[in-house]
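Researcher: Checking consistency across runs. Here is Thiamine-phosphate synthase again:
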Amino acid sequence: MARIASGEMKERLAVYFIMGSQNSERPTADVLKEALDGGVTLFQFREKGPGALKGADKEALARQLQRLCRAYGVPFIVNDDVELALAIDADGVHVGKDDEDARRVREKIGDKILGVSAHNVEEAMAAVEAGADYLGVGPIYPTSSKEDAKEAQGPDVLRRLREAGITIPIVAIGGITAVNAKTVVEAGADGVSVISAIASAPSPKAAAAALAEAVRAARTR
Ligand SMILES: C=C1C=NC(C(F)(F)F)=NC1=N
Ligand SMILES: [Mg+2]
């Protein structure tokens, strides 16, 4: 299998759902199924924070969610845990500054999808150098989903990256909803990633569909 093409990566980033067992009172697989029915285009398993599953329990949940994504033809990405991603043959990993070095991860995962977090032009350039297939940029707006999130940067950080000549696929993250998704795509993101906008919604299916529509509409400008 070769590295994912940039065009396909951009398409997959349209509505990137991220979730772990701690992001909903409901069974994780139930929420994910609704999100997949609503049209999310990429999924990241992010098992983190107080009460997060570990070891065999974490792997069992990962495999359950991976099977669900496979049934929908949606790639399955693992956050932080490169060893788990390799053990279950996930479609990719996402790493940030406090995880394993991106260059080292690229060596370990071969042609799997590699996502890297970036907060500014310098980090973005380094991530491209390391062989990232996409960048996660944010938090764009204040977020309730990440305890140690940095200061919200606003959509301008996306414009700054594009003006600096960063052409790699970019997904925006942090406090994104169907209301502000258009602004974020117009600022230069290829798609939006969300946790609570879908995981905490009364209807994750409706929330995913609304996000997909907002991104589609923003792209046709
Ligand atoms: C901290 C993160 C930043 N960005 C992303 C993604 F949206 F996937 F790019 N995922 C993370 N876990
Ligand atoms: Mg991380």
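Researcher: Does this match what you'd expect to see?
Model: One thing to look at in this run: The mean pLDDT is 97.
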